[in-house]
Design a protein that fits this description.
Helix content: 10-25%
Strand order of the largest sheet: 6-5-4-1-7
CATH superfamily of the largest domain: SH3 Domains
Strand content: 35-45%
Structural class: alpha+beta
CATH architecture of the largest domain: Roll
Low-confidence stretches: none
Number of strands: 11
Radius of gyration: 26 Å
Mean pLDDT: 87
Shape: elongated
Largest sheet: 5 strands, antiparallel
CATH class of the largest domain: Mainly Beta
Distance between the termini: 83 Å
Bound molecules: zinc ion
Number of helices: 3
CATH topology of the largest domain: SH3 type barrels
Number of domains: 2
Length: 142
């Protein structure tokens, strides 16, 4: 009987530890990953970006002990989630207009007279996308 109880105890312990080691995600925008549970700039290992997966090792009411990139540390439980948060596209990159004609080489911040001449259709893209496609800043717009 004793052995049986011990078996249940061990099973629960093992099961419990497997359960605790679940993947959680950073739900805040920038989360401090610390070596201990003291809030100080000295113990920050790195700053984790939103939706970064972490291996949850244990959890208290304030702190979660997690593994990230082979390192064990602590993050605030308030900024982790068991479901992966949706990362919205950063809005800080400005959108520009490009003319889709093969002879076009400039991107525009507004419908300047250069862009109005465009007959091949205008597309709104991010600045980096315009540059990737080989467009340069329009002299009238910038
Ligand atoms: Zn322009």
């Amino acid at each position: 009987m004793k052995k049986y109880i011990l078996f249940i105890f061990l099973s629960l312990t093992i099961f419990g530890s497997i359960q605790a080691q679940q993947t959680v995600y950073v739900s805040g925008d920038n989360l401090n990953f610390r070596t201990d549970t003291v809030i100080s700039p000295q113990n920050v290992i790195t700053i984790l970006k939103k939706a970064t997966p972490l291996l949850l090792l244990s959890k208290s009411s304030d702190w979660a002990k997690v593994e990230y990139n082979g390192k064990t540390g602590y993050v605030s439980v308030k900024y982790i989630s068991s479901t992966k948060p949706v990362v919205t596209q950063k809005k800080n990159e400005s959108q520009v207009y490009i003319c889709l004609s093969k002879s076009s080489y400039a991107y525009h911040s507004y419908y300047c007279h250069g862009l109005k001449r465009c007959k091949s259709g205008v597309s709104k893209v991010s600045v980096s996308e315009a540059k990737r496609r080989g467009y340069k800043a329009c002299g009238n717009c910038y």
